[in-house]
UniProtKB/TrEMBL annotation:
This is SDR family oxidoreductase. It comes from Actinomadura barringtoniae. The keyword Oxidoreductase applies. Keywords: Oxidoreductase. GO terms for molecular function: oxidoreductase activity. It comes from the Bacteria. InterPro entries: NAD(P)-bd_dom_sf (IPR036291), SDR_DHRS6-like (IPR051122), SDR_fam (IPR002347).
Amino acid sequence: MDTATAPIPVRSPLPDGLAGSTVVILGGTSGIGLAAGAMLRSVGARVVLVGRNKGRLDAAVERVGGGDQVIGETADVADLDALEGIFERAGSVDHVLVTAGVIGGPTPVTEVTRDGAWEDFQSRLWGVLATARVAASRLPVGGSITFTSGTLLMRPIPGFAGTIAAAGGVEPLSRQLAVELAPRRLRVNTVRYGVIDTPLARTVAGAGPDTEGDEKMAQAALATPLGRYGTADEAAAAAVFVMANPYVTGSILTIDGGGSLA
Ligand SMILES: NC(=O)c1ccc[n+]([C@@H]2O[C@H](COP(=O)([O-])OP(=O)(O)OC[C@H]3O[C@@H](n4cnc5c(N)ncnc54)[C@H](OP(=O)(O)O)[C@@H]3O)[C@@H](O)[C@H]2O)c1
C-alpha cells in the first residue's frame, strides 16, 4: 500500500509513544509551552523551544535541560521565513505545538485600532496558519499539529474584541486542517483552556510571581467549580495527550476545570 494513504500505525496513546520523536513548541519558553517542553523531554522526546525573547529562551532551555535534546530558537510565530528556518535546522520534526500568544489589557471595541487588531491577527491567526503551512509538507505520517485556544471564545468578557476576532479563527482552522491533512495522515487538534496559572494569566489578573500573587490567584479561583485554577502541567498534559494519541484528530479538547459549566 502507498505510504501516503496507509493508515496511521496503532501505537500506545500514552506519552511514552513520543519517545524518540521531535516536537517543535512555538511559545515554548513560558507557561503551558514550557511545561509541555519539560514533560515531552521527560518521556524521551527531543524538543525545539521557540519564543521571541532571547533571555527567556535561554532560561527555558536550561530549565528543560537535556543537552542536545533541547534546542532553542528565537522567532516570531508570524515570521514565515523564520519558521521555515527552524524546521530546516531541526531536521525531522514529528509534532508541532503552538502556544504562542499574548493578551493585552482590556480595550473597549470603540478604542480598537487597526494596528492593534493587525498585531492580534498576525500572532494569533496568521501565526498558526503559517505554522501549519510550514509543517504540513514536512511532518511524517502520524505527525500532528496542536493549536491552543481559550474558553473566552465561548464565554466572552468585555474588552477583548480584537483578541477574540483573531483567536476565534483557530478552532475552525484546526477542524479544517484535520480534514485537509488527513489524507497525508497528519492530525490536527486544538486544546481550549480555561484559566491556567501562568505568567500570562497572572498579567491579566494583575498578580505577580510572588506569594502575594499566589494568594490573589487562589482567592480569585475560589469561585470556580473546582476551587482553583489549572496548573501549566495540567494544561501541558492535555496537549501531550492529543499529540500522543494516534486516533485523535479534529478535536477541540476543553481543559477548564469545569469553568464553562459554571
Ligand atoms: N493561561 C491561561 O489562562 C490561558 C487561557 C486560555 C488560553 N491561553 C492561551 O494559551 C497560550 C499559552 O498561554 P500561557 O499562559 O502559557 O502564556 P505565557 O506563559 O505568556 O507563554 C506564552 C509563550 O508564547 C511566546 N510567544 C508569545 N507571542 C509570540 C510570538 N508572536 N511568536 C513566538 N512566540 C510567542 C512567549 O515568549 P515570548 O514572549 O518571548 O515570545 C511565551 O513563550 C496563549 O496563546 C494563551 O492565549 C492561556
